[in-house]
Amino acid sequence: MYPCCVGHEIVGRAVRVGSAAREGIKVGDRVCVGPQGYTCRRADCECCSAGMENYCPRRVGTYGDRYPDGSISYGGFADYCRHNSYSVFSIPEELASEDAAVMLCAGSTVYEPLKEHGAGPGTRAGIIGLGGLGHLGVLFAKAMGCQRVVAISRSMKKAEDALKLGVDEYVATAEQDDWAERHASTLDLIVCTVSGTGMPLQGYLGLLRPKGRFCQVGIPEEPLPSLDAMTLVLNGTSVSFSDSASPENIRKMLSLAAENGIKAWTQVRPMKDVNEAVADMEKGEARSRYVLENKIDDEQK
Question: Which residue among 188, 195, 213, 259 is least crowded, i.e. fewest CB within 10 A of its CB?
Answer without folding.
Answer: 259
